[in-house]
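ok new one. same drill as before - structure tokens go in, u give me an amino acid for every spot. 242 of them this time. try not to just spam alanines like last time pls lmao
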């Protein structure tokens, strides 16, 4: 595990963007796993800036998103498909055929999960996976459990995750209760994993996940075992670890 300390959210985002851009420059046809939520927003802005300056080319890049809400259409502004188009894909030269996000409208769960896993395998696997970390240690939507879930699956969101996400919806009743998500095995199969964590509210989980035992009750803790895992963390989030 490699830990890169950042001064604040902006510095964390810049450092993460440089790691992702280095991956793409070194391997133009990289397969990149992407995350949603508020944490990677500035990282995506930095990547967009690098593209606009002519320093980064996404033409050959393939992407796979970690998750998608079950039941939301692509046109729903709270869907992760919409989020990724709005925050990143509409601003870079990525080939739309190379963008992969689970289909939240597919009610055939087994079919959707198997299809997504096959798409990753057909692409040659993920070269670099970007992750955030939930307050309860979830990665993607792999929630605390008694076991580590392996492949892409449909998960019931915990109450804490629903509460954390309700700010994005008009009311709590509008928050989806289920989501497709990459499993722990799928995430761990990435050649490189990059996690970004920011803010004082994450200080407890950072200490538990990366300086405590590996346990499915804290899904992010499994990353301690990955062969090439980098944690970029700002001072506030790392304050309980020194």
């Amino acid at each position: 595990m490699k830990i890169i300390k950042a001064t604040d959210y902006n510095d964390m985002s810049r450092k993460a963007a440089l790691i992702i851009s280095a991956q793409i420059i070194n391997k133009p046809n990289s397969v990149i796993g992407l995350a949603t939520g508020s944490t990677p927003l500035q990282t995506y802005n930095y990547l967009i800036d690098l593209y606009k300056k002519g320093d980064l080319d996404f033409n050959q890049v393939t992407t796979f998103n970690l998750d998608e809400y079950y039941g939301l259409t692509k046109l729903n502004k709270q869907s992760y498909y919409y989020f990724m188009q709005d925050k990143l894909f509409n601003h870079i030269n990525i080939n739309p055929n190379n963008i992969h996000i689970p289909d939240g409208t597919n009610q055939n769960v087994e079919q959707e999960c198997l299809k997504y896993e096959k798409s990753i395998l057909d692409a040659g696997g993920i070269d670099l996976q970007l992750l955030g970390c939930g307050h309860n240690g979830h990665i993607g939507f792999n929630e605390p459990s008694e076991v580590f879930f392996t492949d892409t699956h449909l998960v019931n969101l915990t109450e804490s995750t629903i509460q954390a996400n309700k700010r994005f919806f008009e009311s709590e009743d509008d928050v989806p209760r289920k989501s497709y998500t990459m499993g722990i095995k799928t995430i761990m199969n990435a050649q490189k994993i990059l996690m970004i964590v920011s803010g004082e509210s994450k200080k407890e989980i950072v200490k538990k996940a990366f300086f405590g035992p590996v346990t499915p009750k804290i899904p992010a803790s499994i990353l301690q075992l990955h062969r090439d895992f980098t944690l970029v963390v700002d001072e506030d989030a790392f304050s309980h670890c020194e």
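The chain is about 30% helix and 15% strand. and btw Residues 9-26 form the longest helix (18 residues).
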